[in-house]
Amino acid sequence: MVDPRLLPLDPHKLPPPSEWFAPDAERHLLDKPGFCPSCGASFDLGIVTEYWLADDRIFFSWCGSCSWTGNVIHVERAIIFEQEH
Ligand SMILES: [Zn+2]
Q1: Rounded distance between C-alpha atoms, residue 72 and residue 85, angstroms
Q2: pLDDT mean over 21-50
Q3: If we measure between CA atoms, which residue out of 58, 11, 64 comes closest to residue 33?
Q4: Are 74 and 59 in contact (CB under 8 A)?
Q5: What residue segments make up the domains of the chain, in order of their start?
Q6: CA of 71 to the centre of ligand 1 (A)
Q7: Entry pTM
């Protein structure tokens, strides 16, 4: 469990630590995307809900500024190739 003082402010109160889903609620608060990938506006005026598909954590998101709707997938680690300059 993360020190509650390190968690960002959220209008929804976290469940009591004794609840079975408390660690998931805490991770959601820490990892959910904060800004729209289309226009860059804060998701404070949008909706971000999370679901799981196998090992993937998927944040289904709607932007209240530009109405973009889509999935943002949390990735723990990625291996990418960069072209030489
Ligand atoms: Zn947007």
Answers
A1: 30
A2: 92
A3: 58
A4: yes
A5: 43-85
A6: 13
A7: 0.73
